[in-house]
Amino acid sequence: MVLFLISAITTIIIATIMLYQRWWTSNIPPGPKPRFLLGNLHQLKPHWTHSFIEWSQTYGPIISVWIGSQLTIIVSTSDLAKQVLRDKDHQLSNRHRIARMTQSGNDLVWSDYSPHYVKLRKLCTLEIFSLKSIENFRSLREMEARSMVMSILKDLKSDDQTGKPLVVRKYLGAVVLNTISRLMIGKEFESEEGKEFKSIVEKEHLLSGSGTVFDHVWWLKWVSSWIISDKEFLSHKDRRTKWFRGAIMEEEDVAVEDHAGFVRKLLVLKEKNELSEETVHGLIWNMFTAGADTTAVVIEWAMAEMIKCPIVQEIVQQELDSVVGSERLMTESDIPKLPYLQCVVKEALRLHPSTPLMLPHKASETVWVGGYKIPKGASVYVHVKEIGRDPANWINPLEFRPERFLLEETDVKGRDYRILPFGSGRRVCPAAQLSMNLMTLVMGNMLQCFSWSSPIPGERIDMSENPGLLCSMRTPLQALASPRPVTRVITPLTLD
């Protein structure tokens, strides 16, 4: 009798699970056939986006991919993106998190859409990203851009650098990181601290784009810590914590009023028990990682494109010479009078968005998109890079042609679903305007002060990408920099 009851109960449970699974997976978008436990993990290339593109060509613009036991929906047209980010935005504003990379989701980037998220976003907007705050810190960004130019001039004059190409990423990474660090903590990092930070972030992007079956099969997450020890990730986590405590919170025991930058505001809220220590640390890490690399990556791609296409560089320089002249450096107040330079930034964001898949959304309830069901708990990716290269929206989409944005006013901050480098809807990047200003200023200064060319004429620039969350150039861009007349104005400063 007991055995009969056990068998009956087991049969009922299995039948219930099978019926639920059949209901849960019915009417979902088409996609490659998954394997038990692995899903489609075994079919994914190191660059997941390449696999998604191939499958979209086979199954259509909305596809289902099983990352282990996690159902993942990828949409790759502007119309579907509009449904995800506008029409169903409320139901699709949560975050899918992998515990080892995203912690508990108490920060801004990885938290679900909740009162906690709204509170953090409002805080960041008021303190850093509002138009008033952006204007207040304008001189800081201009000073850092000027320092970048001086650093390039100094290296060009050094004996061991004469006639040699410069690694462009070195200067872009420094100017962006210095700008953010001064906003956040009121000072720049020491040289070694900055190098260590860049190395840690690069490693984190690579880890976020990989993972094991233990990260993606729900029941294995519970036992993975008993079966394996992810030494690579644990080592990375310890390294990140050590850097953070040394470079950011080294003065945590100092009185709050002696701190500077955004950290001071966060510590005040921590003292009032309005923010936890975990949230403070997570928020600071968000600001550094989300801002530093993403901005520098887009500028590096843009510089590579202009070295490949010198005519674009010449048009920008002609515009700068006409509007700004050669007696002073370009400032942010010049940006509205430099339409072609703004177009270059937009074109770089269209062709080379820093996060080609956007961050993963998660369904808080079952919704329908494109005529297909997205069950509660499913992850949703918007393939931003593919949308920006869709021939249905863009003429000659694979060509770098900034003038396309002169023909019509195009918003790149979330209102035009053909180009979504900053996302859209409730999870749109709050730093979009700040990022646009910084990219335009840095790029303008680089092109006003120098002409950039390939070290070996006729040699093809390696435009391949690194795998991972961030779409950076696999081979750092190297270029020859020839000073232009405006550098005479700032040359004496390099000798101080």
From TrEMBL:
UniProt keyword terms in alphabetical order: Heme, Iron, Membrane, Metal-binding, Monooxygenase, Oxidoreductase, Transmembrane, Transmembrane helix
Entry-linked InterPro entries: Cyt_P450 (IPR001128), Cyt_P450_CS (IPR017972), Cyt_P450_E_grp-I (IPR002401), Cyt_P450_sf (IPR036396)
GO-annotated biological processes: spermidine hydroxycinnamate conjugate biosynthetic process; spermidine metabolic process
GO molecular function, one term: tricoumaroylspermidine meta-hydroxylase activity
GO cellular component, one term: membrane
Listed cofactors: heme
Membership in a protein family: Belongs to the cytochrome P450 family.
Protein name, per record: Uncharacterized protein
Originating species: Arabis alpina
Upper lineage: Eukaryota, Viridiplantae, Streptophyta, Embryophyta, Tracheophyta
